[in-house]
Design a protein that fits this description.
The structure is a homodimer.
Chain A lengths: L2 H15 L3 H13 L4 H8 L7 E7 L5 H14 L4 E7 L6 H8 L11 E7 L4 H17 L4 E6 L4 H7 L4 E6 L14 H4 L2 E4 L7 H13 L13 E3 L8 H17 L2 H30 L2 H12 L5 H11 L8
Parallel strand pairs in A: 1-4, 1-5, 2-3, 2-4, 5-6, 6-7
Helix pairs in contact in A: 1-2, 1-3, 2-6, 4-10, 6-7
Chain lengths: 328, 328
């Protein structure tokens, strides 16, 4: 990195640390697009991170996650805390507008310098979604936000991956949606630190709570001294229950810091991330140094036509790279 | 690979090629668990693959995908075609039973040697789901199945990844589910080669069809000479529409073979897969040779405590590995 770039990065990081929304936005855009000096930026930002609490909010469409994030932001701001919001939208060209529309609800915080709100459009690669979320959270962390609320769309495996990055994970349910479109699937029950039954003024809220309790009691894998996810009822559009939710979150943080799971979880996040970084860099070096795009397409074509097999091709490439490890 | 192992693999592959369900099941279990001689097996199986047509079936829970797969299997069997079914269940301990229950519907094919049906329980790693699906499809392909139906649960980014492996992708919708829990999100519209409106005897089927058409006409990215996904209506529980669906699938296959996109898509699948294989192997070698589990945890701990940064750690590990490429 030459001196000019180093100076630029330094001043960019300074502006991020002062909470300059433009500098933050530019950093998150770089993270999304993997462009520019994103690695240098993140490396420079990293020592200024680790302080923020990352809260993941997941649940089916229609559960009112955006309203809940809005209500939590208001409640945190009232306590004098600063907030960063990342709304993770695996956008489709068909729905980009609709999802963007949801964000308009957050306009109540638009002129508040203590709240930074950002939709992340992360179409495409899978691991990329979790990676970009983690890196964007680092930027907001360095920008001094006390709490980073990461809101995911839907409840799939990718949301589970994103939730694993969070220090605290909320799973939001509502009365009236069928079981199979709720969180009772795809490993979502297991990731909840706290359940939120939103729209709790609708009929059936008690039944949802009972179903959660019933499902939790089926979890034979749970350790006796482990945290048992509590259920908090909210009516997010009116702000009802937001303060109780924040108290419950504080309770979870205190619990997991005391029993060591807080640090364990953060360590696990970085273990996974480090392996990803290594894997991507190794691949990048092999492809850049030994395997141009044309060669790669040629191999893929031979494989898809069955004139070569992928394992033999892999050995061939690794041989060229000077790697002679044991095959597996 | 020593001679004994080679002989074992050879006889295993022979049994798979004769369609022996036990040999197939054992191979798919090995693929799921990454255990035993899975690499050797897949390498031996590979030259006998490439003939089967892989059909991906995705759509929300409650869309009747299992019934549709059942109806398609029956219709294909009537045509004398052999069928392999892979039902991809990212299982939760809470719902394992329910999803397994769905599979019971497929019991009509239980005693039919021309139909092999398998639920794949693939909790855990994300890319692993797509990888295992592709490898299980290779096994069924080598076993001589004419059609491999890959049914996913739900409509998330992981389903999109799985759908990308298929030669033909069906997106299943039903009347009466709200837009935001249907496929009009998360890039699912774009992956459809054919839309199926199932439960078409329910009110609102025409409206769903109109919504699909409206959404398709918004897709400005579509090339004028590209395939425009047709909509087929079915009542899968009665088998209604299954034959029309198979005809539409044949039409798509003929179209994409004629314009070259068939080969292009298969080449793209193998390009991605080859890069994944390379990436995983490179990482495996670095971690095995240079970075034990304890060292990895130590690094992750230092990073999470911010005493080291992940990029510097990565450079350090790569340096040890003798890699000195350009950083990025």
């Amino acid at each position: 990195m030459n001196e000019r770039v180093a100076t630029e990065i330094e001043s960019w990081v300074e502006r991020i640390r002062r909470g300059d929304p433009k500098a933050i936005s530019r950093a998150i855009t770089s993270v999304e697009n993997r462009n520019g000096r994103v690695r240098e930026l993140l490396q420079a930002v990293f020592p200024h991170t680790g302080r923020a609490v990352i809260i993941g909010i997941t649940g089916s469409g229609g559960a009112g996650k955006s309203s809940l994030v809005d209500a939590m932001t208001s409640a945190l701001r009232k306590q004098g805390k600063t907030v960063g919001v990342l709304a993770i939208d695996p956008t489709s060209p068909f729905t980009g507008g609709a999802i963007l529309g949801d964000r308009i609800r957050m306009q109540s915080h638009y002129n508040d310098p203590g709240a930074y709100i950002r939709s992340m459009a992360t179409r495409g690669s899978l691991g990329g979604l979790a990676r970009a979320t983690l890196e964007a959270a680092l930027v907001l962390d360095a920008a001094g936000k006390d709490y980073i609320l990461v809101e995911t769309v839907g409840v799939g495996q990718d949301e589970v991956e994103i939730a694993k990055l969070a220090d605290v994970t909320l799973v939001v349910l509502v009365p009236g949606l069928g079981d199979d479109i709720q969180a009772f699937k795809a490993g979502v029950m297991e990731i909840a630190d706290i359940f939120v039954v939103n729209k709790a003024d609708l009929p059936g809220a008690d039944r949802v709570e009972q179903e959660i309790e019933a499902a939790l009691s089926l979890n034979v894998a749970a350790q006796p001294d482990a945290w048992r996810p509590p259920v908090v009822k909210t009516v997010a559009t009116r702000g009802t229950g937001a303060e109780e939710l924040l108290e419950t979150i504080s309770g979870f943080i205190a619990f997991s810091k005391a029993n060591g799971t807080w640090d364990e979880r953060r360590q696990r996040v970085w273990r996974v991330r480090l392996l990803e970084l290594l894997r991507d860099r190794l691949l990048q070096q092999v492809t850049q140094q030994l395997l141009g795009d044309a060669a790669l397409n040629q191999y893929a074509s031979s494989i898809s036509k069955r004139t070569e097999d992928p394992y033999a091709v892999m050995d061939e490439i690794l041989e060229k790279a000077g790697w002679h490890g044991t095959a597996n």
